[in-house]
Amino acid sequence: MKSLIAFYSRADENYFGGAMRYVKVGNTEIVSGILRDLPGRDDRGICRRRRRRGRDEGRAGLRRRGRRAGEGHPHARPEGAEGMTDDRAEIEQLYRRYWRCMIEKDVDGLRAMMAKDYCLMHMTGVKQSADEFLRGLSRGTFNYYAAEHDAVDVTLRGDTAEMVGRSRVEAAVYGGGRHLWRLRGDFTLRKENGAWKLVSSEASTY
Fold it and tell me: How far apart are CA 68 and CA 151, in angstroms?
């Protein structure tokens, strides 16, 4: 009696360990490889051929659908989707630039990405205006040394947006020691003269 191992395994981008990571081989395929190597199993070629053929047929089907996609087609891009994608990418880049400026104490760079009415709420519940926070940054009250980003989630609402960023940040604040923080930032944004600006942010941990 022979056995067939059928599975779906996703390589490329995967979310695990709290971050998006690139993997060449999915976990399911790794487990399948272990099972295929057990004595008495000769289905290795069957699994690989079927998986490859299905993948190739799927890609060909997507190409055919893309060529004939039109109004009402389930895979057609909705009107305005390209602009939304551009906005989302711009906001994600804004978040990364925000942290670069924080680490470099680039006050002018930070001020350029903040709206005039920007306000920040710290984890302690203290609220600060842009001027108050930037003054503390330049004077050494807030010191940021490194940031690794786990996730940036963006929700678009016309000319406003909400963004949630999760980053592991090495920092020393209010005269304390240097520590690694898992910081979550909840931001609101507004598009002004074609550019996205930070309106508010609230810091917490995750």
Answer: 35
206 residues of the chain, pLDDT tens digit each: 666 666 666 666 555 555 555 555 666 666 565 555 555 555 444 434 344 444 455 555 545 555 554 445 455 555 555 667 899 999 999 999 999 999 999 999 999 999 999 999 999 899 999 999 999 999 999 999 999 999 999 999 999 999 999 999 999 999 999 999 999 999 999 999 999 999 999 999 99
Specify the CATH number for 83-205; select among 3.10.450.50, 1.10.3720.10, 3.30.1540.10, 3.90.930.60: 3.10.450.50
Tell me the one-letter amino acid at 183. Answer: L
Cβ atoms of 133 and 122 closer than 8 Å:
no
Residue in the structure block whose two tokens are 């947006």: 161
Task: Show the DSSP H helices in the chain as ranges.
Answer: 27-36, 44-68, 81-104, 107-113, 130-139
**Alpha carbon distances (Å) from 196 to 50, 120, 183:** 47, 17, 22
Closest CA to 31 of 55, 13, 8: 8
